[in-house]
Amino acid sequence: MEGKLIIFSAPSGSGKSSVIQHLLQQGLPLQFSISATSRAPRGNERHGTDYYFFTPEEFRARIEADDFLEYEEVYRDKFYGTLKSEVERIIKDGKSVVFDVDVVGGCNIKKIYGERALSIFIEPPSIEHLRRRLEKRGTDAPEVIQSRLEKAEFELSYAPKFDVVIVNDILPTAQQEALKAVTDFIQQ
Question: If you count Cβ atoms within 10 Å of the first and of the last residue's Cβ in the chain, which end, N or C, has fewer?
């Protein structure tokens, strides 16, 4: 069976990472695609495990070499992207690739792979609910939270472009919905 691509996108704080982690623990033939970035490692993050870390210059050189399936300059000199070699490596291992990407990257990957890709959008129950989740995390300053909420409004406008939209009101329910969607898709 040829590997497929499972794309997850969501506003920050929607529970996307929790849904993905649950999915990866279910014994399915899935592997997470490690993204590339030009930002510095945080805490105990390691190259090749958490991200592929490059300098902005190295990242630009890889863009020029057409090494990326998708990429974005989120802030000046802060790039994030998906290396084509990462996707090829996982598919060569006979697994399906799981992506955690922004909405634009998710739509671009879906456009490239078409029916071989399943795009899933994890949606918060409301912007106010999202605000409470971000505040509860306690990791961001109020202005950062406000910026994330403004970006979330934009990201929510992309939900209709995804194959599946899961509202994460109750995490275990959202996890089960994602598991069913992905299981049905990889067994097709």
Answer: C
Question: What phi, psi does 43 have (nearest 5°)?
Answer: 55, -120
Q: Per-residue pLDDT for the chain (188 aa), expressed as one digit of tens each? A: 578 999 999 998 899 999 999 999 999 999 999 999 999 898 899 999 999 999 999 999 999 999 999 998 887 899 999 999 999 999 999 999 999 998 999 999 999 999 999 999 999 999 999 999 888 888 888 898 898 899 899 999 999 999 999 999 999 999 999 999 999 999 98
Residues 6+ apart with CB under 8 A from 149: 127, 130, 131, 134
pTM for this predicted structure: 0.90
Q: Which tokens go with 95?
A: 């697994």
The residue written with tokens 């399915």 in the block is 28
